[in-house]
Design goal:
With 374 residues, the protein is an alpha/beta fold. 43% of the residues lie in helices and 16% in strands.
């Protein structure tokens, strides 16, 4: 998880001793030493081997069988524990030993207070066995936004235990952005053509089909526009291809597939508008877009990020006509485009800079330690 890495790196840079427990599960097993301590940019990291990578990938169910052997020996040396994600076996194991040895912990669900399992019954069973205890035994619960805060309250977390802390971004990585025009050149996009960009998995839950339909309407108003769908297939690309063909906009739509980070940054730099039709939590792509000075358009079918609407972009109803109109308004209003671009860069500096966010987290950690000693 990129957020966990960035947070750990900043804490290490500020002089803290940081240890991370994670697993080797990914699209394929990570090529790292398993079940033993390794150094990652000064951070102490254990990559615990999953018994089943199939369960990890298909069902998002980690099986780090060796974790209890390590944490039972090491947990008493920690001053504070930060659990990322709520409904996971790692959280179950860490919660057990934190409770056993009286080590305070902060829980950051990252949206996982929403149904984690495909079926509601499994989610409810998890909560009855472990979930409610993991939430309510936390010294503090960190919510990404107001929506997640309300979800935590509905699960019984006291309001005074919940703090809203957004995701952050490392500004040093955006000091030297790619030259404008490199992405357009690679994909044979003309200089005068406007780019509507989507970044993320090609998954049905993302609402990309709504974006394609809205973009089709946009092409009836503007001729010099292209839609770039950047990201790997997650089972929905075939259906999207069929939709594009049905709407007869094949010459206007580009599927890049999965790309590395530098190629993604080139896309953000060349894009005129970044569009995410549906989301949950606090997508880092919003921050990446702002860091590159690209305005955002999203819908109310998300978790209510109030810093976006009419400041760095638009939030509209989950409707193809409203989505189309928002894109049209932005692409045809140069003054508005310039204002949103400037504000996007400013809001990153002022609100979502990891250096500032870590200061708030340090204070949260210290408060947890004081409460634990009372």
């Amino acid at each position: 998880m990129r957020v966990a890495y960035d947070l750990s790196k900043k804490l290490f840079e500020k002089g803290h001793d940081v240890t991370v427990y994670t697993t080797d599960g990914c699209a394929r097993r990570l090529d790292v030493k398993k079940n033993r301590l390794v150094d990652v940019d000064g951070i102490n990291v254990y990559y615990f081997r999953n018994l089943s990578n199939f369960l990890r990938m298909r069902l998002k169910f980690a099986t780090p069988y060796y974790l209890p052997f390590i944490i039972s020996k090491e947990i008493q040396q920690f001053d504070i524990i930060h659990i990322h994600e709520h409904r996971s076996i790692l959280a179950v194991i860490v919660h057990h030993y934190a409770k056993k040895y009286g080590i305070p912990y902060v829980l950051q669900p990252h949206g996982s207070v929403l149904p984690f399992f495909a079926k509601q019954r499994l989610k409810s069973l998890f909560d009855l066995l472990w979930g409610y205890n993991i939430l309510n035994d936390a010294s503090k619960v960190i919510a990404l936004n107001k929506t997640e805060k309300e979800q935590c309250k509905k699960m019984g977390v006291a309001e005074d235990k919940i703090e809203i802390v957004p995701n952050g971004i490392n500004l040093s990585e955006y000091k030297n952005l790619p030259r404008k025009g490199e992405f357009k050149k690679k994909y044979s996009i003309k200089n005068n053509e406007k780019i509507i960009l989507y970044v993320g998995r090609m998954h049905k839950s993302k609402g990309i089909d709504l974006l394609v339909k809205a973009f089709t309407n946009l092409t009836n108003e503007l001729d010099n526009v292209r839609l770039v769908l950047l990201g790997g297939d997650a089972g929905f690309q075939s259906e999207l291809n069929q939709l594009v063909q049905k709407l007869k906009i094949e010459d206007k739509v580009i599927f890049t597939g999965f790309v590395e980070n530098d190629e993604k940054m080139k896309a953000f730099v060349d894009a005129d508008v970044f569009v995410t039709p549906r989301y949950s939590g606090f997508p880092l792509t919003f921050l990446e877009s702002c860091a590159c000075g690209t305005p955002i358009i999203t819908t109310k079918n998300g978790d209510g990020l109030d810093w976006i609407d009419k400041k760095v972009g638009f939030i509209v109803k989950y409707d193809k006509d409203q989505l189309c109109n928002a894109m049209l308004d932005l692409l045809t209003n140069d003054k508005l485009m310039i204002r949103f671009r400037k504000e996007a860069r400013r809001v990153i500096q002022d609100q979502f800079n990891w250096d500032k966010i870590v200061l708030n987290l340090e204070e949260t950690y210290m408060n947890c330690k004081r409460v634990a000693k009372l």
